[in-house]
Structures are given as structure tokens and as C-alpha cells.
């Protein structure tokens, strides 16, 4: 009887521990969003290399690799100061549960938050446990267990980074995502690429030695639309990441410019040029059944969907200079949004729905602005000597990717929507531009 | 014990959710295969005459692919525009009148008009602006009596600059229409 009771208790505890792991955030909601990150203070965080819980060698560098990826994300967020690994007192094989290591080893080096974890590699399969601790309260805030392939270890790290940010702010971070962009690889013609925010797992989508422009993710992050001169003339193309297949979206009206999926993935907003005039159209997902949305002799380009799909922001020079306009998709009613400046282009609608980011020209330079959808005075969020262009919102609506030539060549950067914490993401030898931030990956 | 099995059920369900949610797809690691079959078609129409063909065969995109500057070398010289404008200034009109005369005396020649922009501003807007610039030249040539069928247009926006300095001199060189002639006799 005594033995049976013991067995039941042990089994119960094991299951409970497992549940905490899998559904960890559910059990740790108490702290979510309670730490104030608005004052510009950066929370000192230590991220320990992962403990190898299996018997095999760590040939792929999972132990350091996961810790490095989380550290990179924490730095990019601007909300954390990552304490350098050389200061850590504990080695990687120390305990990873709250009762199996000494929190003093982490308070001593000034850490307020601590990430610890372990991993097991079996063939190509990887299991990773990650835990976030509040060092002063000496308690675990969240624990997660992930399984996947060894080659996906960085994605596991980015998912946990998003979870850490969820614990602090109440909304998951933007790191388990990809950025698509074009790069000319050092003066040549532009090709489409994508990578994680930290530049890892870079993938070249086009390799046609032609001009490829304006990549845009599908809402599920599995397909890219882009404009290409692959066949000598300009067309819209679709690349399916799952199959690796590139297909041309038929040009029903004229030669296309740009193209963005509607939030429900059922339509594409695109511009077609015919007889020198460019207008905005909405076509179905296979490029057919075009519906003309603008009819004037000016330039109408760069449609961007509202997150609920009911409206489009676009650029028109119908007033004599390029300005941002809003259109109701159902009625076709148009309202001019920007009135200051003589050059306002490349709108992107915030996933929160309340703001539009765009590029504006100030004193001969291009800068990023945001403006309330209701209108009013735009807020300039970049400044300085370089050009800052092509804003693309993160799926959490708190960060914006953009391109800048502040360092000579164009590179992709990210910043808070306030313009704070600007950080460079790409490091190619060429010019990188036209970022498109994906939705959160699975 | 009934409660315990409930726990197990939840645990298994959670494992299922976990596995479903785990990263399972990475893109293929090789180049975009669909893009591999690049068919490089020139943008010119067929029907060129056989004797002394002009040099125009593809234009600026072909030039850049071959590592050459995208500068026209045919009988019809470039015309230039002001920033964010597709208005034909008097100099451009004078040049286009000469182009019309040449096209009239070379009746089998066709011209492809390329519209270009300087690199300031947004790529998509500049593609549309380049189309306006090419169309402005085409419309003027048609008004001077050149059949529209002999003229085609393409915009390269800001993508094929002839120079890359951040100076007004360089920007001006890039805000251009280039004329690629096919068919007809080159001038002697």
C-alpha cells in the first residue's frame, strides 16, 4: 500500500512536471507583463550554454548555438543587456532546475534574469528544454520543452526568445520569423533572399541574374511574391518554400509592379502598368479575375492591406506629388492620408491596425514616418545623414524593419516603432533593401 | 486512479500539440529550382533586316548582365528628365524630333524606349515613373508621325543606373530614356 501510494505520487509529480514544461507559460502567467520595460532600462540577463543531457557529442554546437541565438535576440529587442559568458561562474554541466543550482552564482554577476536549459540529440532528432528564472526571487518563470530536428535548433531558440519577451511584456517577441529582402551582392543585379533576423539560415530564393524586387510574404509565411525581370519583361512571381517551386502569376492587365497577399490569403493587391499608366488592382490568389481599384491618369502603386483586409493604403501622385491614400476595398472610396512633404511612398499597415509606416523625403533625405490611420501629423521616427526607407512591420506591431545606407551601402535594420534601438541585421558585401517581415513561424 | 488516467490523457494531448507546433519544414537548401530555367529573351521584336543591323539587342538589362554600363550606343541618343517628372523639356523635344526624322528615313527600324530613374525614392514608384517617362517619349514620337507599332516601352525604374555617385550630375544621367533600335540601317 505504502509502495503503491509512493508510485502514484511519483507518477503524479512526473506528469505535473511534464505539464509545466509543455504548458509552462500557462503556469507562469502571474509575472507576465509586470516588469516595466518602458523606461529605457535594460534588464541584465545571463544565458547559460545548454547542458548536454544525452550521451552523444554535441557535433552541431547546440549547447552554445541555442544560447547564442537567444542572446542575439535579447540584444536586438533592446530590452535586455546580455551578461558576457566569460563572467559566468557555473559551467554548462551544472543543474538546470531551480533546486539544483545556486542562484547566488548569478546574483553575484549582476543577473536579474537567467536562461538555462538542456538538450538531447538522437540521430537527427533534438529535444531541448529551456527555462527562464527570476534570479532575485530564485524561481522559475517559465519552462518549455521543444522537439525537432537538430538543424532547427536556432528556430527553437527563437521560439523561446519570443516566450521570454512574452513573460516580460505580455506579448510574444518577433524573433521566430524571417526577413525577406533583395541584395545585389556587391553591385550586381538584385536577387531575393531571406534569413532569420540574426542573419542565420540565409536562403537565396532567386538566382536568375536579372532584376528581382519587392518580396512580400504570404500570411502563413510559406510563400513569397516578388517582381522579376527573369524573362526580360516584368512579371509577378510566386515562390513556394514548401516545394521550392517558382511560378509566374499571370499578367491579366499589363506588366505588374509589386504585389501583396490579403490577410485571408484569398487575394493579391498589385499594380499593373498599361500604356504608361499604373493603377492598383485586386486579383484572386491565382492572379485571375482582376478588379480595378484606381482609375486616374496618375501613378497608383504599392498597395498595402489593413490587417482586417477591409482597406488598402497605396501611393498616388494624382495630386502632383506622391502621397499616401487609403481606400475602402468594398466601396472604392478614397481618402488622402498624408499632406506634409512632397514625396511620401511605400506604406505598410501596422498589424495592430492603428498606424501606417511610410517613407518620406525631408531635406533631400528619405526617412521613416508613422501616421495614425485617422490622419493627423506624421511622426518622423528616423533621422540622420543616411536614407532610411522601405518600412515593414514586425508581426507583433512593436518593431519595424527598414533599409538604410547610413553606413555607405544599404543594409536591413530593425527598430522599435518609436524609432529607438536601431540595429543592423544584414551584413552582405552588397546593398540589401526592400525588407519584408514574415508572420510568426510555427 | 481515474484522475490519474485523466492526467495521462492531458499529457498525451499536450505532447501531440507540442509535436504539431514544432518546426518541421525548412526550405530546400539548394537554389530555387523553378528559377533555374532562365529563358533569356531579348525584349526586341523579331523582323530585323539582315544588312548592317544596329547594335540594339536587349538593351540595358543585357548590358548589365554582361558587365557593361547600360549606356545606349545606337543611332538614337538618350533624353533626360527632372526629379520625379516625366515632362519632356525643350531639349528632350528637340532630340525626339531628330529621332523621329531618323525613324522616318529608316522605315523598317523599330525602337524600344527604356524609362529610367535616379536611385532616390522608392523602387516601385520609380518603376511606375520610368513607365511614364518611356510613354511620354513614345507619345511624342507618335505625334510626330511615327507609327505606334514601331515603338515599344519598358521601365527599369532605378534598377539599371549608369553611375552610382550621390551627386546631381550622376542623378541627372540616370533620369533618362534610352532608345534601342532594331532593324533598319545604322547611320553611315
User: What is the H/E string of chain B?
Assistant: HHHEHEHEHE
Give the strand tally of chain B. Answer: 4
Distance between the termini of chain A: 46 Å
Global outline of chain B: globular
The CATH superfamily name of the domain at 74-182 in chain B is OmpA-like domain
Could you walk me through the main structural features you see in this protein, from its secondary elements to its overall organization?
The complex is a heterodimer of chains A (442) and B (188). In chain A, the strands form 7 sheets. In chain A, strands 1, 2, 3, 4, 5 and 6 form a 6-stranded mixed beta sheet that branches. A 4-stranded antiparallel beta sheet of chain A has the order 9-8-7-30, with no helix packed on it. Chain A has helices spanning 2-22, 24-27, 62-77, 104-107, 153-169, and strands spanning 43-47, 51-52, 80-82, 113-122, 125-134, 139-149, 179-183, 191-195, 203-204, 212-217, 223-228, 235-240, 245-249, 255-261, 267-274, 277-284, 291-292, 300-305, 311-316, 323-328, 334-336, 344-349, 355-362, 365-372, 379-380, 388-393, 399-407, 409-416, 423-424, 432-437. Chain A folds into 2 domains: 22-169, Rossmann fold; 179-437, Neuraminidase, CATH 2.120.10.30. Chain A is globular, with a radius of gyration of 24 Å. In chain A, helix 3 packs parallel to helix 5. Helices cover 14% and strands 40% of the residues of chain A. Chain A starts with a helix and ends in a 5-residue tail after the last strand. Chain A is mainly β and 442 residues long. Chain A has 5 helices and 30 strands. Chain B is of the alpha+beta class and 188 residues long. Chain B has a domain at 74-182: 60s Ribosomal Protein L30, Chain: A (2-Layer Sandwich), CATH 3.30.1330.60. Chain B is 39% helix and 12% strand. Chain B contains 6 helices and 4 strands. In chain B, strand 2, helix 5 and strand 3 form a beta-alpha-beta unit. Residues 1-56 of chain B have low confidence and may be disordered. At the A-B interface, helix 1, strand 6, helix 5, strand 9 and strand 13 of A face helix 1, helix 2, helix 3, helix 5 and strand 3 of B.
Amino acid at each position: 500500500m505504502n509502495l503503491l501510494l509512493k508510485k502514484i505520487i511519483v507518477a503524479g509529480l512526473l506528469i505535473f512536471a511534464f505539464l509545466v514544461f509543455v504548458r509552462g507559460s500557462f503556469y507562469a502567467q502571474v509575472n507576465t507583463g509586470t516588469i516595466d520595460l518602458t523606461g529605457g532600462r535594460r534588464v541584465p540577463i545571463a544565458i547559460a550554454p545548454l547542458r548536454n543531457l544525452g550521451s552523444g557529442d554535441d557535433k552541431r554546437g547546440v549547447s552554445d548555438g541555442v544560447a547564442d541565438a537567444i542572446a542575439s535576440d535579447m540584444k536586438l529587442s533592446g530590452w535586455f543587456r546580455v551578461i558576457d559568458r566569460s563572467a559566468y561562474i557555473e559551467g554548462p554541466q551544472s543543474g538546470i532546475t531551480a533546486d539544483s543550482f545556486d542562484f547566488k552564482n548569478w546574483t553575484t554577476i549582476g543577473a536579474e534574469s537567467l536562461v538555462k536549459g538542456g538538450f538531447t540529440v538522437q540521430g537527427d532528432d533534438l529535444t531541448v528544454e529551456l527555462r527562464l528564472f527570476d534570479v532575485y526571487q530564485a524561481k522559475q518563470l517559465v519552462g518549455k520543452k521543444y522537439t525537432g530536428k537538430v538543424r532547427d535548433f536556432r528556430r527553437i531558440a527563437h521560439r523561446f526568445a519570443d516566450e521570454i519577451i512574452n513573460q516580460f511584456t505580455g506579448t510574444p517577441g518577433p524573433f521566430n520569423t524571417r526577413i525577406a529582402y533583395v541584395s545585389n551582392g556587391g553591385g550586381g543585379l538584385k536577387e531575393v533572399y531571406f534569413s532569420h533576423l540574426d542573419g542565420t539560415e540565409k536562403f537565396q530564393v532567386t538566382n536568375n541574374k536579372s532584376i528581382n524586387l519587392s518580396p512580400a510574404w504570404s500570411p502563413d509565411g510559406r510563400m513569397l511574391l516578388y517582381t522579376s525581370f527573369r524573362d526580360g519583361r516584368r512579371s509577378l512571381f510566386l515562390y513556394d518554400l514548401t516545394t521550392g517551386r517558382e511560378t509566374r502569376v499571370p499578367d491579366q492587365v499589363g506588366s505588374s509592379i509589386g504585389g501583396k497577399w490579403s490577410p485571408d490569403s484569398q487575394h493579391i493587391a498589385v499594380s499593373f502598368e498599361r500604356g504608361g499608366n499604373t493603377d492598383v488592382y485586386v486579383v484572386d490568389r491565382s492572379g485571375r479575375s482582376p478588379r480595378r481599384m484606381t482609375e486616374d491618369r496618375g501613378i497608383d502603386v504599392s498597395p498595402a492591406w489593413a490587417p482586417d483586409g477591409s482597406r488598402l493604403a497605396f501611393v498616388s501622385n494624382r495630386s502632383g506629388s506622391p502621397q499616401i491614400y487609403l481606400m475602402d476595398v468594398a466601396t472604392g472610396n478614397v481618402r488622402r492620408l498624408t499632406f506634409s512633404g512632397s514625396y511620401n511612398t511605400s506604406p505598410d499597415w501596422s498589424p495592430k491596425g492603428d498606424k501606417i509606416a511610410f517613407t518620406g523625403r525631408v531635406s533631400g533625405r528619405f526617412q521613416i514616418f508613422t501616421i495614425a490611420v485617422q490622419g493627423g501629423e506624421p511622426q518622423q521616427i528616423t533621422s540622420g545623414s543616411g536614407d532610411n526607407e522601405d518600412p515593414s512591420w514586425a508581426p507583433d506591431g512593436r518593431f519595424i524593419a527598414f533599409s538604410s545606407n547610413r553606413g555607405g551601402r544599404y543594409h536591413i535594420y530593425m527598430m522599435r516603432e518609436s524609432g529607438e534601438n536601431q540595429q543592423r541585421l544584414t551584413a552582405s558585401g552588397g546593398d540589401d533593401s526592400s525588407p519584408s517581415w514574415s508572420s510568426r513561424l510555427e | 486512479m481515474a484522475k490519474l488516467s485523466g492526467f495521462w490523457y492531458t499529457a498525451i494531448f499536450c505532447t501531440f500539440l507540442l509535436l504539431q507546433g514544432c518546426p518541421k519544414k525548412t526550405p530546400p537548401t539548394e537554389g530555387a529550382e523553378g528559377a533555374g530555367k532562365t529563358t533569356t529573351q531579348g525584349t526586341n521584336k523579331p523582323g530585323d533586316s539582315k544588312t548592317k543591323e544596329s547594335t540594339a539587342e536587349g538593351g540595358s538589362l543585357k548590358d548589365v548582365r554582361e558587365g557593361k554600363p547600360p549606356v545606349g550606343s545606337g543611332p538614337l541618343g538618350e533624353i533626360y528628365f527632372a526629379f520625379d517628372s516625366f515632362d519632356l523639356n525643350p531639349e528632350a523635344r528637340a532630340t525626339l524630333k531628330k529621332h523621329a526624322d531618323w525613324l522616318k528615313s529608316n522605315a523598317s527600324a523599330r525602337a524600344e524606349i527604356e524609362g529610367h530613374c535616379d536611385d532616390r525614392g522608392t523602387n516601385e514608384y520609380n518603376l511606375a515613373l520610368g513607365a511614364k517617362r518611356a510613354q511620354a517619349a513614345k507619345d511624342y514620337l507618335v505625334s510626330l508621325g511615327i507609327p505606334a507599332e514601331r515603338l515599344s516601352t519598358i521601365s527599369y525604374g532605378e534598377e539599371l543606373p549608369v553611375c552610382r555617385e550621390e551627386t546631381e550630375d550622376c542623378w541627372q544621367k540616370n533620369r533618362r530614356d534610352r532608345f534601342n533600335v532594331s532593324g533598319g540601317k545604322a547611320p553611315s
